[in-house]
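Narrative progress, year one. The postdoctoral researcher (J.K.) led the effort to move from monomer predictions toward full complexes, under supervision of the PI. The following entry was the first complex the group processed end to end, covering 278 residues in total.
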Amino acid sequence: MKTSDIGIRRLLQVSSALVILGLLLEIVSLLWFHPLSFVLFAFIATGLIALGILVYLVSLVFVATPPDRVPKSQ
Amino acid sequence: MIAILISQIVLSIVLASIFLIRPSLTRGTAWKILAFIGLCVLPALCIVGGMNTHIQRSEQTQFCISCHVMIPYGQSLYIDDASHIPAQHFQNHRVPADMACYSCHADYGIYGPLYDKVQGLRRIYLQFVSTPPDPASIRIQGGFKNAQCLHCHLGARDFGENPVHAAMMDSLKSNQTSCLTSGCHDTAHDVANLGHEKFWKAAQ
């Protein structure tokens, strides 16, 4: 297993964890009828989800191997 | 509507959980597409849906009066006296009862909704971090603008045909004469004297 594979998997796990945490907080904010629920959603849940998406997009950069590094087929 | 959004969130959580437990699945093309949907598209849609729901919720009367300092203002909507402008509008459904505060206090300008949200966040800060103001001392920054009244009343027959309104229409439109503080409709949210008022009980 290549080192970059481990890195990609770790990034995917971090991304998934952030997205899950953010979405769980979004559910809490939707079920909680209180002015602070907007703050919880807008600043914490949205921040975590956006960070999760960003980490996922960063992991895609690792997947895209530059053309000069693609091994030639025999 | 919230049920649909929560279903979408749960679906996103399920998909994200798969990649949390088995990230190696993304070697296959189909799983790569699923990862893109589960970790990028659906969460982004959940943010949009959540924002929409929260903004709609923040326009509700119940939301506005859920802050402690706003409770007397909510009570003032039930004063049994037609000279109290907010109570008269609320009780006769001249504004939607479930959006009574927003209907009269929203800024109807192009950046109004954004300005209102920033003001709302400032009030949340005052309520939960700083010192909440005394309800009776709360004043609208810059005063109540006629544009908020005219948003509904301008063009209405009983408003336009009223000789007093007709005579000062330009002055009302330019905000030179205030609907509220020029002595015509000057009783609004008299929270300092709530103890002396009679209240209307809405039929269930």
